[in-house]
Amino acid sequence: MSTDVPHLIMALAERCMPNARLEWGRAMRAEHEQAVLDGRSMSFAMGCLVTAMLEMPRHRAGRFAIAMHALPLGMIVPIAVFHLGCAVSGVRLILSSHDPYSANLAAGGVAGRAASEAYLAAAPALTVLLLLLGLAHLRIAWVMLDGQWRRAGVLWMLAAGLAAAIVAIITAIDSGMRGSAIQVAALAIELVAIPVLATWQRAISTDLMEVR
Questions:
Q1: Partner of 141 for a Cys bridge, out of 32, 72, 83, 127, CB 3.0 to 4.6 A?
Q2: Listed residue (84, 71, 89) closest to 187, CA to CA
Q3: Could you give the CA distance from residue 3 to residue 91 in angstroms, rounded to a whole number?
Q4: Which run of H or of E encompasses 16?
Q5: How far apart are CA 65 and CA 90, in angstroms?
Q6: Cα(first)–Cα(last) distance of the chain, in Å?
Q7: What angle do CA 96, 99, 100 make, to 5 degrees?
Q8: What is the DSSP code string of 61-73?
Q9: d(CA 81, CA 75)
């Protein structure tokens, strides 16, 4: 197992290098075989990976790889985790019939009590919608990393519909609730990023075909 890890790191380092430096990647792997015999396999592999990663912003395919991984892992997955966490909180509310936000609404007089009752009544539907929205975002991140841009677009439309339903329900309960702006901003970024990344990948593929 310990010998497999450096080889995996070397494979990752080669994937980070541009096609123009494939010969350098092969030479790097040959040197790694000697490093294995010298007992410095891991340090050599890590050095190669760091070097390859530092090269990534300098070539087109590397910049694309950084962008394609940064958006799903840096924004979409955290949003998915947030929605799934809200769904778990909704399940707890349904099971316990007690929620701090509901209690705060109820303390606001007649209008507050009415909003609290509406909030409790809408909790099951909101929980299901939040669960579906979280799962949809996880799937969007997965298909984007896999380069399935058409499927990512379809899933984005599903996520937008779910988000619109959630915002509509929440606004009907209490128009003063916050958080909708963040959801709208995230969906807007995804809407722009999916076709941009798809076009970028097609351009890179075209360049590679011309080189070959």
A1: 72
A2: 71
A3: 45
A4: helix 4-16
A5: 37
A6: 37
A7: 145
A8: HHHHHHHHHHHII
A9: 10
Q: How far apart are CA 72 and CA 75, in angstroms?
A: 6
- At residue 135 the predicted structure's pLDDT band, cuts being 50, 70 and 90, is very high
Query: How far is the C-alpha of 117 from the C-alpha of 52, rounded, in Å?
Result: 58
Q: What is the pLDDT of residues 154-194, one digit of tens each?
A: 888 888 888 888 777 776 665 545 556 667 777 788 888 88
34-67 pLDDT, tens digit per residue, is 677 667 778 877 887 787 777 777 777 777 777 7
Q: Calculate ∠ Cα 51-56-59, nearest 5°.
A: 130
The identity of residue 13, as a single letter, is A
Tell me, what amino acid is at 128?
Answer: V
3-class DSSP state of 18: coil
What the block records as the tokens of 42 is 């891991």
CA distance 122 to 195: 35
